[in-house]
Amino acid sequence: MDHYKYIILGAGPSGLSFAHTLKTLGEDSFLLIEKERVAGGLCRSEEVDGAPLDIGGGHFLDVKRKEVLDFLFQFMPKSEWQERKRVSKINIRGQEVDYPLEANLWQLPLADRIDFLESIAQASCLRGLPMPTSFEEWITWKLGERIAAEYMLPYNRKIWSVDLKTLGIYWLYKLPDVSFRETLQSCLEHTPSGTLPAHGTFLYPKKYGYGEVWKRMGEALKDHLLISTPVASIDIEDRIVNGHLKADKIVTSIPWSQWLSMANMPEYVRNNILKLHYASIDVDYHAEILSTNAHWVYDPDERLAHHRILCRTNFCADSKGYWTETNSRRTIKKGGWSYTNEYAYPLNTLEKPFAIEAIFRWAAENNILCIGRWGTWEHMNSDVAVSAGISAARKAERVTVK
Predict the structure, then answer these.
(1) pLDDT tens track for 216-252
(2) Which in 124, 212, 266, 324 has the greatest CB count within 10 A?
(3) Could you please report the per-residue DSSP string of 192-234?
(4) CB 102 within 8 A of CB 183
(5) Model confidence pTM above 0.90
(6) pLDDT in tens, 15-43
(7) Structural domains of the chain sorted by starting position, each given as residue range(s) with its CATH number in brackets
(8) Burial class (CB in 10 A: 0-12, 13-18, 19+), 177
């Protein structure tokens, strides 16, 4: 029986960051287990048609968290990254408009601008009507009929492919706020309003795909990383993984849904795991070069299967073509290179907060620490996952960082 202080499940950004932080703190008794042949999780890259392609979809490194940048630059120096100002677009009413839509309505023809402005002015939130509790109703309440009907609702129906009434509103802090006054002013002045959300400025490798930094982090762990090793069994009572790896504490960043076949858990825990839902996404490569300067384009048109296009020629050096992201339920296979991410996005259903709280309580009682997108069932960008992994390792080791 091999005994470790920590056994970490899943070598995505959070698992890798947790492991390397342990090393930095002088802790050597840990093992990171990864089912794939290379570390990186959803942020892995492969060479497709002569250039890197990020198989988990579009991933970019936000520049806002200095601690995260300094941490990652240990493995991939700053000189190997290219800084870019985000250019993202939305296909709406037959033309590309800069993202976010409400900040750039001035790019539309006058009649279209008036349509959207009138709708925002009549939004229920501005008329003092009560805030709804479901995502579908909240979007219309907050943004008005036009933006909801022509952009936000169809786009979200595509990406999640579930009844939007089953989604809650607790996660909507991620959406930019909409001010009628600022929107009107931007239309009059022909300038963007408000602030750009995540990745307003981002880093992407000059020579490699986004997966390179995580690959290097995995390699730097040497014998502390066990690749090509799926988790087949977990003995909860004795914290034994795969029959021969014993831990004082198990750190999980893998989807809770996978625990159902691996571990014996109380019925109430299993029932709460069954309440957690997720979206699967297919990434499909296309060799054509699109006529746009955008790094990525959102498309709410429900006649098209995909919801987003990543134009890699505009951020990945010496590349051609683009890839699309499509909810697996909507995919129409046409041949060519394709990759399915079964676990792509956690769904923020109405019942998720209560289910995940019960799972967390049980996990804590059994020396199981939950980290990352899938351990916490929370959509988070890679920089957030790294920050959370660092913080979790410090807390686990009871280290106070001044």
Answers:
(1) 999 999 999 999 999 999 999 999 999 999 999 999 9
(2) 324
(3) --S---TTSEEEEESSS-THHHHHHHHHHTGGGEE-S-----E
(4) yes
(5) yes
(6) 999 999 999 999 999 999 999 999 999 99
(7) 2-87+204-396 (3.50.50.60), 100-189 (no CATH)
(8) exposed
